[in-house]
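Kindly go through one protein, given below as sequence and C-alpha cells. The question is how this chain folds according to its C-alpha cells.

***
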Amino acid sequence: MTPLPVQMGDGMVKAFFAYAASERDAVQAVHNAQVLLAKSRQELELKLWEENDISGRPLTDPIFENIAAADMLFADITVMNFNVTFEIGFAVGLGKRVHLVRDRNIMRESGLITRIGIFDTLGFESYSEGASLAELLKGKSPEKPLPLRQTINTKAPVYILNTPTSNAAMLAIAGRVKKARLGFKSFIPQEESRLSAINAVDDLSACLGAIVPLVPSHFADADVHNIRAAFVAGMAFGLGKITLILQPPDGPAPLDVRDMVKTFSQPDDIADLIADFALDVTERLQADDPLPLERGNFLAELSIGDAIAENEFQTLGEYYLRTDQYGRASRGEVNLVVGRKGAGKTALFSQLRNEKRSNVRNIVVDLKPEGYQLIRLKEDVLDYLAEGARTHLITALFEYVLYLEICYKLLEKDKSKYMRDNRLYDPYLRLQEVYQSGDAGEGDFSERLLSISRSLVDAFKTRFGNAKEQRLTSAQVTELVHKHNIREVREALSHYLEFKDSVWVLFDNLDKGWSAHGLSDEDVTILRCLIDAARKVQRQMQADDHDFHCVVFVRNDVYQLLVEASADYGKESRAVLDWQDPDLLREMLRRRLVHGVLPPATAFEKVWGSICISHYKGEETSTYLIERSLMRPRNLIKLVAHCRGFAVGPEHEKIDEDDLRKGLRSYSLDLITEADQELTDILGEDTNLLYHFIGEGEVFTKAKLEELCSGAGVEPDQLESVIEFLLYYGFMGVQAANESAKFIFDVNYDMKLLKVLAAKAKGNLSYVLSPAFHAGLNL
C-alpha cells in the first residue's frame, strides 16, 4: 500500500495514496506521479507508505493516523487488494473525499471490479503511466466527500454482510443476532448481485454495529466477498461503529489487520463473540447522548426504504401498499402466493404475519428456512430413494415439522400464561409432553430444521445404508420421521387450539437462491411435498372446526415447474403478484417518499418534482424509470436509490440528468450480472452470453440472436431454452411488423402467450432488447 499527504491551515493540502505493492507498473506510476506533482502542484504534500514503516509499531497504526490527518485519499484499484480496500472504506467512514484510479493497461481484474460493485458505483478514473496519473491528480480536491446518513436506525441497529452462500457459520450469526433481539439489515448476495457503495454508506451510517464474516479463499466467490468485507469493515471502523469481523481458522485476513479480526473454530465460538457484540450495541442504544449529527439537504436525508423486504420488516407496515392479492391472502382465500423475484412476496408475507399477530388470540407460525438446511437430506437420502418413497418421506417430514412448529409457537407464547389460566394448565402440559418427545430441539426454525434433517439422515444411513432406488413402506417412513405417534401430537394440538381464534402458518424462503431452470427433480419434489403437507395439516385441523390456514410463498417460475410436474397444482387457489399498472408502482414509490417527512396525502407529482428533474431524454422521469424496472417493485426501488446515490455525493438538491445516466448504468450492470448468474445455472457453465450483446444494437432477427448465442458457446440443442430464458427474464421482448414490442410483463407473465405472439409473427418476428439493459450494454 502507499500514501500521499495533504492539509489546510498553512495553505497545504494533505493527501494519502493507497495502492497494492504487488503491481510493479502501478507502483512505478505512483512514484513517477509523486515526482511530477511535487513540481506542478507544490501545495500538495505527498507521503508514500514506506515512510510509515516504523520499527516496533504495527504497520497499520501510522497508516490510519495519516488517513485521519489527510484531507483526501487517493487509491489505486488496478488490482483488488484487501488492505487498500479497507483503507478506502476507512477514509469514507471518516468523511474524507476519496479519488480512485486504475491503470488501464492492466485488464485482468476489470471483470472482478464489476462483480464486486463497490468501485464503479463510487466511480474511478483510468491512467496509462505516471505522467497521465499526475495529470489526473493535479486537479483533485478534498471537497464533496460522500455524505453520511445523519439518523441512527434504532429499529435495525446492526448491519450484516452475508456470505455468498449459506453455511453453518452464517446460520449461527443470524440465529444469534435474532436471539439477542437486535434488529438488523443485511446485504444478501442471493438477492443483490453487486454491492452498491452508496447503499453501504447509507446502511452503515445508520447502524450502531456491523458484523462482517470472511470466507476462506476456496469458498465460492471468496474473491468478491472478501473485498466487499474489507470495504464494509474499513468503513465501519472509520464511522466508529462497533465492528465484529469473523473468520475461520484458515483465514483469510492479511496480517496487517489480523489483530482486528476474531477467529472462530465452531458455532459456539460465534455465539460467544456475538454475545459480547450485542452487549456493546445495546449499551450504545441506551446511551443518553447519541452521536452528534448535522442535517443535509432534503434529498440527502430522504429514505425510500430498502429494496429487500427482509431489511425493513420493522418499518414496512408504515408505507406498505395493500393490493387485492394481499386482501385475498388475508381473508384466507389462497394457499399459495406466487410472484417473480422482486415482486413483493416477502413484503406481503411480513405484513400478513403482522396483521394476524395483532390479535393476541391468534397463533402465527412464520417459517423462513433456507435451502441449506435440506442439502444433506437431499444428497444423503433422496438420491437413494425411488420417486414414490421420496414423496412419501418428505411429505411425512414436513407434516411432522409443521405440527411441531405449531406446538413450539403455542408453548412459547403461553409459557407464563398457562400458570395463570386454569383452562390451559392441563392441555399445556400435555402439549409440552408430546413436543418434548420429538426431535425439534431449541434455537430458531432454521436450526431446528437443520437438527431434524441431520437426525433423519443419520437414522436413514444407519438403517438402510447406501443401496440405490430403495422403496420404503409406510411403517418404515413413520419410524424414520416420527419419533412418537403423530396422532398424539395432532390430538394434543387440536385440543389446545380450542382456546385460540385462528392459526396461520406462513412458509417463505424455501426457494431462495434457486434458479428455476436449474432445479433438480429433488428440488421440485421437496417443494411439492411441502405444499402437500401444508394442505394435509390444514384439512385435518379444519375438520376439527379450527380456523386454520397454511400459505406458501413461492416464485412463479418455480410454481410453473410444479404445474408441469403435477396438473393438480394448476387448480390450487393462489394469489399472483404481477405488477402491470405503472400507477400502482408509482403509488408504492410515493408512499415511501412521503413517509416520515411529508403529509401522507402528498401527491406523487409534488414530491417527485422536489427530488428529481421532470424529464429525461424527452420522457417524464418517473415513467422512464418504471419502464426500466421490468415492472418489479424491488427493481424500481433499487433504480431510484442508485440515482439518488449519485446525486447525494456531489450534494445535488435534485436528481439531474447526469445522476440519472449514472444510476441507470449502475442499475443496468446489476441486472446484467443477476441475469448472467441465472443463465449460468441453466447452462451449467459460464458463457458470459449477455456481454456478447455489447454494441450489437437493440433489434435482432432470430438468426442474429442464434448467431450471438452460438458465438458465446451455447450448444445447438440449448438455443431454444436459452432464448426462452431471455424472454422469460425480460431481457428480450418480441415484436411483429408495425407493432410495439411485447415483454413478459405485458402478457401477464404467461410464457405460452408470448410464444403464440412470436409464432403468429412468422417471418416478421423481431427480438427487442429491453431498455433496462441498454445502459449496461453501452447502447
Notes: The CA atoms of residues 52 and 61 lie 9 Å apart. Residues 387-413 form the longest helix (27 residues).
